[in-house]
Design goal:
Length: 400
């Protein structure tokens, strides 16, 4: 069994921290309690050179830096036209070795510039991308990323599809897993009949090292590349750690410029235009999930905070990053020196962040993290907090 966050970025991706390095990624992985992380951005030539220089290649399709296991992975933006519609779809892709990565990059240069954005724009449809990757290595993996995001999600309201098979066509059988994204949780995906038997994974999409692990997946498999692939194919997921979906920045419908945020039911009643400026609203994740869902699933939250649907599906648990909790308690910014010192102090006594947020007993939390932090962690597990949902690129606001 291993804990993984496989959607990350390097400093070469737009809108990402300039401080991201292999050192910071490895250090953060250890603090968070992650056993396996993505290298990210292997299409970028400068980052790839760093990876090849510093990573130690293992025999099992994984690589290592300062005791942390890395999987060769990246995200790309497929920009293409199908029928009369333009599409922009983000996908994650993974390969087991550098030789295969170089072959991938050699082919992808024909579809876009790899030296600019670490998350390159490629003029290729997802179906052709999958065929290309499998032609290079039979264990290549493609996972559609944050599938409900309006602008770049497979099911997104702006450039997406109503059925993933429309995008992948005869390659659909080689898509074993889908990333839920920050604005949805697994059960929202299982309500879609096409996804009922697919593996739903959760990763952070972190644009800085400190945001790693805000979502993660615990694989019930051996820590090898083959174990990873088999787990996706077989649905061998122990549980996932989730952002509160309401906190995601595309949960509700809305228009940021006009301050309009609303539940999809209101959109149904009033129409899809902003009532202030009359331009189209950005229809959020919840809207698309409601539109495409075929069934309603009953959720049950246990006393340990884990949410279950049935024995058929893995459990999941909602979390709020520990730095954010400490920030709320001491009323200092989450990236301040004061918060960081308290964060490291708590970890030094209680273990990794995931251990603290998910598993530590309340008495231990009170004794070593303080009553206020402990209370907030328990509220997170119980779901007893208020959230003003995110919309149109604005994160939701949590009130404890």
């Amino acid at each position: 069994m291993f804990v993984a966050d496989l959607h990350l970025h390097s400093r070469y991706s737009y809108a990402c921290s300039r401080d991201i390095s292999l050192e910071s990624l490895a250090q953060s992985a250890q603090l968070k309690g992650l056993d396996l992380i993505s290298t990210a951005d292997f299409t970028h030539p400068e980052w790839l050179q760093e990876l090849e220089t510093h990573l130690v290649q293992g025999d099992e399709g994984l690589h290592e830096y300062r005791g942390v296991k890395f999987l060769l992975g990246t995200e790309v933006n497929c920009v293409f036209r199908q029928g009369n519609t333009n599409h922009r779809i983000h996908v994650l892709m993974f390969m087991p070795d550098f030789g295969s990565v170089h072959q991938v990059n050699d082919k992808l240069r024909n579809f876009g510039d790899l030296s600019g954005n670490g998350r390159p724009n490629l003029k290729i449809c997802p179906r052709d991308l999958v065929e290309m990757l499998l032609g290079i290595h039979s264990d290549a993996i493609v996972i559609p990323a944050h599938i409900w995001t309006p602008w770049y999600g497979l099911y997104g309201s702006k450039f997406g599809f109503d059925d993933y098979k429309e995008a992948f066509c005869d390659m659909s059988d080689y898509i074993y897993a889908f990333e839920s994204g920050l604005s949805s949780h697994p059960a929202m995906n299982w309500g879609i009949s096409a996804l009922t038997n697919k593996t739903i994974v959760s990763f952070s999409d972190a644009h800085s090292s400190v945001r790693m692990g805000r979502e993660f997946t615990v694989f019930d498999a051996e820590l090898t590349y083959k174990g990873f692939v088999d787990a996706l194919k077989n649905g061998s997921i122990a549980y996932t750690g989730e952002f509160y979906s309401e906190e995601g920045k595309y949960h509700y419908d809305g228009h940021r410029r006009c301050g309009i945020s609303q539940h999809p039911n209101i959109t149904t009643q009033m129409g899809p235009e902003c009532r202030v400026c009359h331009k189209p609203l950005t229809l959020g994740v919840l809207n698309r999930v409601i539109t495409l869902s075929n069934k309603k699933l009953d959720l049950h939250r246990g006393c340990d905070g884990f949410i279950t649907v049935s024995n058929r599906y893995p459990a999941f648990i909602n979390l709020i990053p520990l730095r954010d909790i400490i920030s709320e308690v001491i009323q200092k910014g989450p990236n301040t020196k004061t918060v960081n010192e308290e964060y490291l102090r708590i970890l030094s006594t209680l273990g990794s962040e995931i251990e603290i947020l998910v598993h530590q007993e309340e008495d231990n939390l009170i004794a070593y993290a303080g009553e206020d932090v402990a209370t907030m962690i328990m509220k997170c597990r119980k779901g007893t907090l208020s959230i003003e949902p995110g919309f149109d690129g604005v994160y939701g606001k949590i009130t404890f």
